[in-house]
Amino acid sequence: MVPGEAVTALVLRPLDRAEAGGDPVHSVITASGINYDGRTNGITAPAGEAQRELLETVYRRGGVDPEDLGYIVTHGTGTRLGDPVEVNALREAFRPHTDKQGFCALTSTKTNIGHTFAASGLVGLICLSEALRHGTIPASLHCEQDNEYIDWSGSPFYVNKSTKEWTPPPGKPRTGAVSAFGMSGTNAHVVVREYTGGPSAAAPVQPYYLLPLSAKSEAALEQVVRRLVDRIATGALSDTDLPRLSATLLTGRHHFRHRCAVVVSSLDEALALWKAGSHSRSGRPARADAWFTGTVPRDFTARAADAEHIRTRLEDSLDTRLGLAHRREALVDLAQRYVAGHTIPRPGARPGENRPTWLRLPRIRSPGTVTGWPANGPAPPRWSPRRRLPRRSRLRPRPRFPLRPVRRAPSTRRGRHRPSPSY
Asked: Does 352 map to a domain?
């Protein structure tokens, strides 16, 4: 067994609340369950009967047809004992529901990153969620010969040894499952399907949008602006994405001290302002009525009256009964307060309207290396194996009182000496 290390992070939310909040949904958990082996031959010995009971219970409670499962991320430790027990339990759970052969792929993440122990189940869940999102079944690496203790003839399963497209069943979404077994005898099984809600209805178009950006330093802020400009220049975003872009920059990112904000009606206008703002330090000022920048004082504290004023101005910017100039003026006020240190909340969806979803944007990183070491500064210190370590004597603590040598005096017996301390 090859051990591995993993740090995982999953955000779970009820589907209706995620859709109402405009969150990006990667996949949907349809059924799950856990049970315990009971008495076995050892702490690492699996129990096939307990695994079969768990699978049948999860499928029955979740209303899952095993024939719809096209991919299972197994526990798969690659052992002669554990793998046959797991595959046989799956086969017994599938037997009453389908006679199809070779339609469900099996893989294990342990051939990719090793056994991550307590995190291995979540690693498998992330693997399945990404496979559903991309419509691709990854390969189970380094698998050249099938386990001879598993009867693959007539089995609904096969080991997927090369990355391939995941074809969904006719008229149904892609559905897969994950199995994870604990060393103490705990078994877990989760069924996950792809999100088929489709793109949400477009949010109402506004005449102007507030696009805020922030970073931990001026150099990092310039890099954030540059990366977003490059992203827009590639054609990845269009004017129809402005509601989602504004919502993402307002509430989908943490806001730092160094800030800038623009009030625009199109992406072309935003590009022009960001490019002009990057040259403002060289004597080419940007538009004062659309480009705003500032550094938040470290001791800044927002007042309750300011929060109420911000909510009022936010409502004014969305009020279709007001004129365009008044609505733009409200956004300008919000931009000025943002760069001063205030937080602009996400506006709530009005009756009959949809809240815009977030966009996937480039991550904010410090300039230079990934670790944040300045690009123009000195090279980071490195440990050298030739470096001399201090002598061992220098590492010993000094005695509280000075020590004196012990002198030996001759004894009365011939040829023998006894120590005689003398201070």
From this structure: no
Per DSSP bridges, beta strands 164-165 and 157-159 are unpaired
13/19 Cα distance (integer angstroms): 10
Give burial (CB, 10 Å; 0-12/13-18/19+) of 251: middle
Give yes or no: residues 179 and 74 share one domain. Answer: yes
pLDDT bracket for residue 215 (50, 70, 90): very high
Strands of the sheet with 186-194, listed across from one edge: 27-36, 186-194, 175-181, 69-73, 104-107, 157-159
Burial class of residue 354, CB neighbours in 10 A (0-12, 13-18, 19+): middle
Residue with the larger pLDDT of the pair 87 and 404: 87
CATH code at 34?
A: 3.40.47.10
Report yes or no on whether pTM surpasses 0.85. Answer: no
Residue 226 is classified by DSSP as H
Same domain, 213 and 162: no
User: What are the structure tokens assigned to 374, written together?
Assistant: 């300045």
Domain assignment of residue 184, given as a range: 15-194
CA atoms within 13 A on the CB side of 286: 22
Same domain, 65 and 168: yes
Task: Let me know whether 315 and 232 are in one domain.
Answer: yes
Q: Select from 114, 130, 139 the least CA-distant residue to 176.
A: 130
161 and 224, same domain (yes or no): no
118 and 252 co-located in one domain: no
Min mean pLDDT across 161-175, 218-232, 275-289, 357-371 is at 357-371
User: What is the predicted pLDDT for the residue at 396?
Assistant: 57
